[in-house]
Amino acid sequence: MVKLRVTATFIMAVISVSVLQAEANPKMQKQSFGKTEDGQQTDLYILTNKNGMEAAVTNYGGTVVTLKVPDRNGKIDDVVLGYDKLEDYEAGKAYFGATVGRYANRIAHAKFTLDGVTYTLPKNDGDNHLHGVFNKRVWNAKDVSGSTGQALELTYVSKDGEDGFPGNLSVKVVYTLTDQNELKIDYSATTDKDTVLNLTNHCYFNLAGQGNGDILQQQLMIRADRFTPVDATLIPTGELRSVKGSPFDFTTSTVIGARINQDDEQLKLGKGYDHNWVLNNSTAGSLYIAAQAYDPHSGRLLEVSTTEPGLQLYTGNFLDGIRGKAGKIYNRRYAFCLETQHFPDSPTHPQFPSTVLKPGQQFHSTTVYKFSTK
Ligand code: GLA
Q1: Whose CA is nearest to atom 12 of ligand 1?
Q2: Is 308 in the active site?
Q3: Contact of 298 with 208, CB cutoff 8 Å
Q4: Spatial separation of the C-alpha atoms in residues 181 and 67, rounded to whole Å
Q5: What is the DSSP annotation of 140-193?
Q6: Catalytic residue among 202, 275, 342, 349
Q7: How far apart, in whole angstroms, are the C-alpha atoms of residue 362 and residue 113?
Q8: Nearest in space to 170 (alpha carbons), one of 186, 160, 156
Q9: What is the pLDDT of residue 15?
Q10: Model pLDDT, residue 102
Q11: Residue with the nearest Cα to atom 9 of ligand 1?
């Protein structure tokens, strides 16, 4: 009898421990995201953490489709712009939530010279090359969840000559959702020929919730004393200009809309903010708090840390009434992007941090989007 009772208690204990473990470590969910026009299967992976935060990522373009984050009262909203359906991502031109490469941002006149050879790229932004095709590719996906949180590994091999770039480039992007409410993105890459590379993520944030108005009253701080002014086609002139006394000074937290319509040559060229800031991080390669965005209404605070030297602030100047998730309409300035990156057009500016990757080298960079409330 005693023995029976002990055995029963033991079984109950084992059951409750495994129930607890199941609760603490729910499995990443996977569901179909449909087939691409050319018949490739895509999936949506739903990463969750213990605070109810949720990131849905598809292997189509390595794209963050939704990012559900609590406000100061615990109310959950999706804080990134995007589409409900794969076909809209296939047709879309806004790079919503996408993994961007091979070269994030612009390359002037869609060409660059490396080791004495000139490479020609597609012109997809006037006379320039912009952002590349990684956001339109189907990536291999693998659940690599571990002690730091649920994690999705995406890999893609960009063939020698894809989009005009040299070298077979193997790229790996790992999204991890931690219990500290961080969406961490680790990028790595190797090549078999000298090449150039610039990887970023193109999430469009609205801390009040996607589609819920413009972001002009949200506040931003960027830890950068200089930015890279641009010409009329948004290519850096090469100058690293002080932000002091200009609408580009976000060294203290400032309302995004406070100066956006000022009579300023650079703001006019960008039709708002669409510029690269030179982060003050003096130890390149180490994780640095680059920016903080805050929505006083919801209390959501986003902190962006990165190992990259630059940060593109883009204030959704080209959003023109796109129909997005849940039927929401995205008008001008309905989101901001904080794209951690190397500087635009680096291959033609030898004084900028180098974007060259050589065989035998391992490229690695990390960006963390951390959410809290205050
Ligand atoms: C980047 C560019 C912008 C715009 C968006 C996509 O951030 O800098 O000019 O092209 O991507 O619409």
Answers
A1: 94
A2: no
A3: yes
A4: 11
A5: EEEE--BTTBEEEEEEEEEPTTGGG--S-EEEEEEEEE-TTSEEEEEEEEEESS
A6: 202
A7: 22
A8: 156
A9: 45
A10: 98
A11: 274
- In this structure, the residue with its CA closest to atom 7 of ligand 1 is 314
Q: Give me the catalytic one of 54, 303, 308, 339.
A: 339
Distance, CA of 60 to chain centre? 14
Q: What is the pLDDT of residue 1?
A: 46
CA gap 94, 83 in Å, rounded: 11
Q: 3-state DSSP call for residue 356? A: strand
Average confidence (pLDDT) per 10 residues, the chain, 374 residues: 49 45 70 98 98 97 98 98 98 98 98 98 98 98 97 98 98 98 98 98 98 98 98 98 98 98 98 98 89 98 98 98 98 98 98 98 98 98
- What's the token pair of residue 250? 């976000």
Nearest ligand 1 atom to the CA of 339 is: 7
Find where tokens 């995004």 sit: 256
What whole-number distance in Å separates Cα of residue 6 and Cα of residue 355? 65
For residue 34, what are the contacts with CB-CB under 8 A and spacing of at least 6?
A: 42, 85, 86, 87
Closest CA to 241 of 269, 287, 198, 275: 275
> Cα(236)–Cα(69) distance, rounded to whole angstroms?
35
> In the prediction, which pLDDT does 25 show?
60
Rounded to the nearest angstrom, the distance between the alpha carbon of 127 and the centre of ligand 1 is 15
Q: Which residues line ligand 1 (CB under 6 A)?
A: 94-95, 105, 130, 234, 274, 312, 314, 318, 337, 339
CA of 170 to the centre of ligand 1 (A): 25
Spatial separation of the C-alpha atoms in residues 101 and 185, rounded to whole Å = 14
* Structure-token pair, residue 301: 């605070």
CA–CA separation, 174 and 152 (whole Å): 6
List residues bridging with 191 in a β-sheet. Answer: 169
CA of 362 relative to ligand 1 center, distance in Å? 28
Residue 162 a catalytic site member = no
> The whole model's pTM is what?
0.93
pLDDT at residue 284, as a whole number: 74
Measured CA to CA, the distance from residue 214 to residue 331 in angstroms comes to 8
